[in-house]
């Protein structure tokens, strides 16, 4: 019998999967945080619904689009902010003795990407239920939404690590540090999402989507390279 | 495409990589210089005064809408070029800091970033005044203008981040990380986005006259290039002075 070889024999991947499992278990044990996040999205959407119902019904497509991305942006900041901040300095030191820092940042990014995907899809579902569904090419729209969740996760993970180092009011500092970096990404996302709302042809959005993918890769690679330096302190 | 256009394209792309590298290398050399550097500083002063005086006095092509305001090319554009150059120097110092930490490299990265902010604000101001007279508004939602605003916000955030640390080594390391990360994540896009997004009023965009159309007889180039070199050297000079001041303050505090 030959020994079973699978991906988990690679040490880095094994460490990542262990850390991911740890994050999921922690999240599941503290369900209040997850529930709070989902409730945050739900109540924001409901407030939007109540405000727009004053003028009778659903907002026009440009406002619909802008509002959706603002809600998702703030939900993302809140979701990612707690990642590094809820860990104490002692806990960090303990992880540092067990795994390499690259595993920590990759696991955190993956975890945040999964979390934000859930938040984004749930947010979109509630949003379409309450505020109507003007989307004309759903495939492109959802694909763009997933790219957005991935982009928010990759960008904000390192930013939350930086903000956690600074201590004090982490969430405010995270918004200050994160927003300027995310503006170019948001511009692209909002543009592609507008194209999907209007049902424009794929060729119109192609270059923007490719730029988004490239941007995600740049951000991921820089985080991977820089995180070990952040961790060392 | 004939051979000549291909050759020009190859030369341009080599130059666009080589010039920033040369600029960063030369910038470090000039900023960290121990001697007084009379020669390059007088050249800088001559270039700046000369380009400003000639830029105001020479005859420029008459074009509709822009008219005399075309002269802003000699001030506004070199400011952006020198801002990008000095910010590249700042990022390079941050990378060097992470490789071998020292207080000196941290101060140099910080002072270069501050010079970049000053030049960026000057660029915004000249652009805004120009826009008021040609477009009729101080600010428009144009991709280029948005990009400039984002760059300023990023470096504002960099200063806020520096302010929120007590421990000096921690501050130096984390702000170096943010400097590199923000530059890598946002600055390249500021060049890509204006090309991706739709119509723009900014000169050089979508049918608006840009540098090549302005410049029918090459006279503007003869002022523009010296102005660019002068402003970039001026940025290094400014950084040198402010970092020398910062070193003196550090030394004073130690004693």
From TrEMBL, chain B:
Keywords: Cytochrome c-type biogenesis, Membrane, Transmembrane, Transmembrane helix. Residues 16-185 form the Cytochrome c assembly protein domain. InterPro entries: Cyt_c_assembly, Cyt_c_biogenesis_CcmC, Cyt_c_biogenesis_CcsA/CcmC. It comes from the Bacteria. The lineage of its organism: Bacteria, Pseudomonadati, Bacteroidota, Cytophagia, Cytophagales. The chain crosses the membrane at residues 6-26, 38-61, 73-95, 116-139, 145-164, 176-193, 223-241. The keyword Nucleotide-binding does not apply. Pfam families: Cytochrom_C_asm. Belongs to the CcmC/CycZ/HelC family. It is found in: Membrane. This is Heme exporter protein C. Required for the export of heme to the periplasm for the biogenesis of c-type cytochromes. It is a multi-pass membrane protein.
């Amino acid at each position: 019998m030959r020994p079973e070889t699978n991906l988990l024999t690679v040490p880095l991947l094994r460490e990542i999967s262990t850390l991911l499992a740890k994050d999921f278990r922690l999240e599941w044990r503290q369900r209040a945080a997850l529930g709070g996040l989902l409730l945050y999205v739900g109540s924001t959407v409901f407030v939007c619904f109540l405000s727009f119902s004053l003028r009778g019904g659903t907002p026009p497509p440009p406002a619909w689009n802008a509002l959706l991305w603002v809600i998702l942006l703030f939900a993302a900041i809140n979701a990612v902010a707690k990642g590094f901040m809820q860990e104490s300095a002692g806990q960090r030191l303990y992880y540092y003795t067990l795994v390499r820092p690259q595993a920590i940042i990759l696991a955190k990014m993956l975890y945040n990407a999964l979390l934000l995907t859930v938040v984004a899809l749930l947010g979109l579902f509630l949003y379409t239920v309450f505020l109507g569904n003007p989307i004309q090419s759903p495939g492109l729209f959802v694909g763009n939404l997933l790219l957005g969740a991935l982009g928010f996760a990759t960008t904000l993970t390192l930013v939350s690590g930086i903000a956690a180092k600074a201590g004090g009011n982490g969430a405010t500092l995270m918004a200050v540090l994160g927003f300027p970096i995310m503006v170019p990404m948001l511009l692209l996302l909002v543009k592609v999402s507008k194209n999907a709302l209007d049902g424009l042809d794929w060729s119109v959005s192609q270059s923007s989507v490719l730029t988004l993918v490239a941007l995600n890769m740049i951000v991921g690679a820089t985080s991977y390279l820089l995180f070990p330096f952040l961790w060392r302190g | 495409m004939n051979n000549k256009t291909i050759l020009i394209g190859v030369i341009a792309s080599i130059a666009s990589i080589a010039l920033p590298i040369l600029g960063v290398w030369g910038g470090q050399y000039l900023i960290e210089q121990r001697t007084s550097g009379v020669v390059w500083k007088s050249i800088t002063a001559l270039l700046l005064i000369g380009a400003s005086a000639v830029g105001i006095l020479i005859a420029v092509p008459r074009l509709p809408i822009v008219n005399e305001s075309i002269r802003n090319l000699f001030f506004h554009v070199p400011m952006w070029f020198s801002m990008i150059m000095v910010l590249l120097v700042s990022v390079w110092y941050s990378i060097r800091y992470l490789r071998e930490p020292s207080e000196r490299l941290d101060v140099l990265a910080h002072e270069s970033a501050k010079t970049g902010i000053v030049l960026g604000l000057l660029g915004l101001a000249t652009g805004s005044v120009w826009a008021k007279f040609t477009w009729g508004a101080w600010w428009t939602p144009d991709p280029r203008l948005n990009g400039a605003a984002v760059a300023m916000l990023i470096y504002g955030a960099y200063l806020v981040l520096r302010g929120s640390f007590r421990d000096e080594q921690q501050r130096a390391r984390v702000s170096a990380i943010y400097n590199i990360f923000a530059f890598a994540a946002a600055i390249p896009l500021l060049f890509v986005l204006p090309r991706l997004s739709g119509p723009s009023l900014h000169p050089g965009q979508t049918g608006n006259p840009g540098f090549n159309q302005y410049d029918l007889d090459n006279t503007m180039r003869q002022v523009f290039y010296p102005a660019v070199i002068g402003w970039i050297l001026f940025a290094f000079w400014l950084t040198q002075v402010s970092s020398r001041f910062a070193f003196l303050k550090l030394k004073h505090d130690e004693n």
